[in-house]
Amino acid sequence: MLRRQALALGSVLLGACTLGGWTVFRQKQTPPLLLSARDDSDGNHFAVGYRLDGRQVFATQVGQRCHDIVNHPDLPLALFVARRPGTESYLLDVRDGRLLQTITSAPNRHFYGHAVIHKGGDWLYATENDTTDPGRGLLGVYRFIDERLVRSTEMPTHGVGPHQVSWMPDGETLVVANGGIRTEAESRVDMNLNAMQPSLVLMRRDGMLLSKETLSQPMNSIRHLAIASDGTLVSGQQFMGDRQTTADLLAIKRPGMPFVAFPVGESQLQAMNHYSASVAIHSGLRLVAMSAPRGNRLFIWDLDSGEVRLDAPLADCAGIGAVADGFVATSGQGRCRFYDCRQPQIVATPLQLPAGLWDNHLHMV
C-alpha cells in the first residue's frame, strides 16, 4: 500500500536542475521524502530527512531548534526555519543533508518558525519579529543569489506576532496568521495576553493589504494554516484564555466567504486542551486533519460537510502532511503513522520511522 502511495506521489522531473555543478534527476521510483526537525534524547537539534519506508536520508545537527520547513520549487534545497525566537535558519541540500548556509536574522529581528518560497524560485518570505517594537509583525524578504539566501528587505504583516505564512493558489497572494501575541527579544514569554490582536491577513507580495479578519475570541491565537487547491483556507488556533472557556481551535475561510469557526463538536474542542499544533488539507480527498498534542488526539474531518472522519488517540501528535492516499503524522512520544483515507473507515498503519522527539511540523517533498 505504501509502495503504491509512494509511486503515485513521486513525480517525474523532465530534464535536470543543477546545484553547485551537480545534476539532479528526480526519479519516478523515488518514495516521497519527509522533512522535519527532531531532537535526540540529549536535547541536540537535528534537521532530518526520511523516506516513508523508514530509510534515513540525512540527520544534520544544527545549532538551534527548527520548526517548519519549506523546499525550493526547482532545486534540491530546503530551508529549516528557526523556532520562535530563534535567530538561525538552515539551508540544506535535501539529497544528503549538507548544510549549505546558516541564515542569521537581521539585527533586532528573530524568526517566527515559518517561511514560503515564491513559485518562481527567486524569493523567500519569512515571518519575523521586530524586537525594538515587540510584536510588530514582519515578513523578511530574501532573494536566492547563486543558490544562497540574501536578505533584501522587509514588510509589515499588518498585525502582531505573525506565525505561519502561506500562498493562496494563485501563487501571488500571501496569507499570514498573525498570532496576536507580543514576544520580547530572546524570549517565549507572552507579553500582552489581555490585549491580544490575532488576525488572518491576505496581502500582495508587494506588501499591500487585501483583507484582515478576526475570530470572535481575542485570546484565540491564530497560528497555523492549510490551503486547498480551490482556495479554501483553514487555520489552527491556540487559546490563551481561561482553561474553563471553550475556544474554536479550527476555523475556515471558503472562497468569497468570511473567516468563521469550523463546526467542531464540543467534546472534541474540550479534548484538544486549548492547543492545536499542525493542520493539513488533502485537496483530492477533501479532508482536513489537525493534531492536538496536549490532548494526545488526531482529528480528520470532511472539509465540505464538517463530518468527523477520525478522532483517534496519538500520544503527543505533532506534524501532519498530506500524501497520495491520506495523511502522515509524527509524534513527540510515540510511533509515526500513515492514515489511509480512501475508504469510509480510515485505517492507521505504523511507519518504520524513529519514534518520538519529532517537532510539530513535517513537510513532504
Describe the structure.
This protein is mostly beta strands and 365 residues long. The chain has a single domain (2-364), classed as YVTN repeat-like/Quinoprotein amine dehydrogenase (Methylamine Dehydrogenase, Chain H), CATH 2.130.10.10. The protein has 2 helices and 30 strands. A hairpin with a 5-residue loop joins strand 24 and strand 25. The longest helix has 8 residues, at 2-9. Residues 1-28 have low confidence and may be disordered.
Question: Characteristics of this structure?
Answer:
single chain; mainly beta; four-stranded antiparallel β-sheet; 365 residues; disordered N terminus; 2 helices; Methylamine Dehydrogenase, Chain H
Order of strands across the biggest sheet? Answer: 5-4-3-30
CATH domain topology: Methylamine Dehydrogenase, Chain H
> Low-confidence parts lasting 5 or more residues at pLDDT below 50?
1-28
The CATH superfamily label reads YVTN repeat-like/Quinoprotein amine dehydrogenase
Rg result: 19 Å
**Rough outline:** globular
Number of strands: 30
How confident is the prediction overall: mean pLDDT?
90
Main beta sheet: strand number and arrangement?
4 strands, antiparallel
Q: Approximately how much beta-strand content do the residues carry?
A: over 45%
| Amount of helix | under 10%
The number of domains is 1
